Amino acid sequence: MNIVIIGQGAIGLLWYHKLSKQASNQVSLQCSARITQAPKHSLFTDRENHTTSQPLTLATASDLQTADVILVCLKSYNIAPLLPSLAKIVSTSTSVIFCHNGMINPQQFLVLNQPCYTLLTTHASKIIEPFHTKHTGLGHNDIGLICGDAERTQQEKVIQCLAEALPTVSFSENINTKQWLKLAINCVINPITAINNIANGAIVHTQFQQQIAMILKEVVLIAEHDGVLFDHQQLIARVLTVAKNTADNCSSMRSDILQQRRTEIDDINGYVVNLAKRLNITLVENERLVREIKALEYNNE
Ligand code: PAF
Predict the structure, then answer these.
(1) pLDDT tens digits for 1-13?
(2) From the CB of residue 241, how many other CB atoms can be counted at a distance below 10 Å?
């Protein structure tokens, strides 16, 4: 398969490394414009702490035009600006897969004439230094079609290719529910850990339980308007399980604040708040979190 990965973050490099290992794949990487000179090799450290080096092949315009798969591993706020240029250059038979935190209004993807998928991963990885990623936690990948028509055989090939590189992968006919579950998890863990500067596991403490219940009550309400039904208590339990399973992790939002980067708050709690506004519903707790995270971003400027 001819595969282009867009984004040199922890997840982009994890896929780059894993997909490049399969001899049948030609994989190239498109880095962000701020990378003026990429190294000749990228480094990968596995969960047993073995580090290997991989030649870095940068994607050309022709790689993008002839790609079977384009895997977009960018921050959520960088996706909308990318879509018009992708639509112009990419062939209609290319499968475009988006792997990011937060939710993007599905209407935005309609500029693309390709089958578009979302890939939700629970694999954990972190950047040790630029172009060196470490696989820190085994996970699972859910993939589902978000727009366009997929050709069955091509879709099966793509899923098999991803599953061989970084198992396990399941195709989901109902990806919207899984997206909302991930969103609910991120609505709780990300802002609480960023605001309090704590590891994921610390949110299970009693002091956060009332706030967690309030955040999720609001998420359950808005998800229902999008056709996704959650049980409030079960959702709280799911979120706390993820916090325990990733107890030592520094959430992506906390990392963004600590490294003085923009966060994905607009596409996480902000996404829920915006949907609520369209329904004339005020979400006290999620709105508060959006304000607090924006204040932290502002202080960092
Ligand atoms: O954004 C993150 O950091 C992750 O999605 C999660 C699940 C909160 C674990 O750190």
Answers:
(1) 999 999 999 999 9
(2) 12
Question: Of all atoms in ligand 1, which is nearest to the CA of residue 251?
Answer: 3
The H or E element spanning position 71 is strand 69-72
Homologous superfamily, domain 2-172 = NAD(P)-binding Rossmann-like Domain (3.40.50.720)
Give the model confidence (pLDDT) of 40-68 as tens digits: 999 999 999 999 999 999 999 999 999 99
**Chain-centre distance for alpha carbon 235:** 20
Q: Ligand 1: which residue has its CA nearest to atom 3?
A: 251
What 3-state DSSP class applies to 286?
A: helix
Beta bridge partners of 54: 42
Q: Model pTM greater than 0.85?
A: yes
Calculate how far, in angstroms, residue 253's C-alpha sits from the geometric centre of ligand 1: 8
In 3D, which of 45, 37, 26, 34 has the Cα closest to residue 7?
34
Domain 176-300 CATH class label: mainly alpha
* Ligand 1 centroid distance, CA of 183 (Å): 10
Nearest to 208 by CA among 219, 195, 220, 218: 195
Per domain, the residue ranges of the chain are 2-172, 176-300
β-pair partners for 124:
137
